Every structure is written in C-alpha cells, then in structure tokens.
C-alpha cells in the first residue's frame, strides 16, 4: 500500500527534524518540529508540546526544502521504469 502525499511530506519532515511553521485558521502561527501525526492531528514540539488538529491547519511551511520528497512526475517515471503501479491519488491536485 502506498503512502499519500500528505503522509510522505509530514513523515519526511519528522525524520529530518526540520523546523516548521504551522499556519492555523485563526491566524495564529506555531513553530516547532513534528514529533508525530495521525489522520486527525499533528504533535508539535518547540518550547512546549502542542497537539494540533489538522482541520485547524491552513498550511505547513518547512524552514528548508524537503530534499527526499520527489515531484509526482519523478515518481511516475520511476514507477514506470520499475514496472510498478502508480498511486493516482498522489497526482490529483
């Protein structure tokens, strides 16, 4: 089973311990590193621990580029070369 784009993005940021700015629908911003996440929430840590519900998030901006996350077109080419299947949900946007 393939991982969706959101999970790949969050997991890579978590693994690389990249500082992120999370913009909330209230206009508030929160900074920290992602310690964990699930379908409904993201666990962030900076000066304090914070559990943020995903429905309250407008966007998540990493402080540096996430190098390991390939563009969808690159993944399609790689999958075709390997004879694998393509997760079309990743390409829809």
Keywords:
single chain; alpha+beta; SH3 type barrels; 5-stranded antiparallel β-sheet; 3 helices; 5 strands; 32% strand
Descriptive report:
It is built from 3 helices and 5 strands. With 93 residues, it is of the alpha+beta class. It has a domain of 64 residues: SH3 type barrels (Roll), CATH 2.30.30. A 5-stranded antiparallel β-sheet has the order 4-3-2-1-5. A hairpin with a 3-residue loop joins strand 2 and strand 3. It starts with a helix and ends with a helix. The C terminus is likely disordered.
List the helices and strands and how they pair.
Blueprint lengths: L4 H12 L3 E5 L4 E9 L3 E5 L3 E5 L3 E6 L9 H11 L5 H4 L2
Antiparallel strand pairs: 1-2, 1-5, 2-3, 3-4
Summed over residues and divided by their number, the pLDDT gives a mean of 83
Distance between the termini: 20 Å
Largest sheet, spatial ordering of strands: 4-3-2-1-5
Number of helices: 3
Number of strands: 5
Largest beta sheet, briefly? 5 strands, antiparallel
CATH architecture of the domain at 5-68: Roll
Give, in order, the helices and strands.
HEEEEEHH
CATH class membership of the domain at 5-68: Mainly Beta
Residue fraction in strands: 25-35%
Sequence stretches where pLDDT stays below 50 over 5 or more residues: 88-93
Helicity level: 25-40%
- What's the overall geometry? globular
Radius of gyration: 15 Å
Per CATH, what is the topology of the domain at 5-68? SH3 type barrels
Class per helix and strand makeup: alpha+beta
């Amino acid at each position: 089973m393939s991982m969706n784009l959101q999970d790949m993005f969050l997991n890579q940021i978590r693994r690389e311990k990249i500082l992120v700015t999370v913009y909330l629908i209230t206009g508030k911003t929160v900074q920290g590193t992602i310690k964990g996440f699930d379908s409904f929430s993201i666990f962030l840590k900076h000066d304090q621990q914070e559990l943020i519900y995903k429905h309250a998030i407008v966007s998540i901006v990493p402080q540096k580029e996430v190098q390991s996350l390939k563009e969808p077109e690159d993944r399609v080419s790689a999958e075709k070369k390997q004879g694998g299947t393509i997760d079309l949900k990743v390409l829809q946007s």
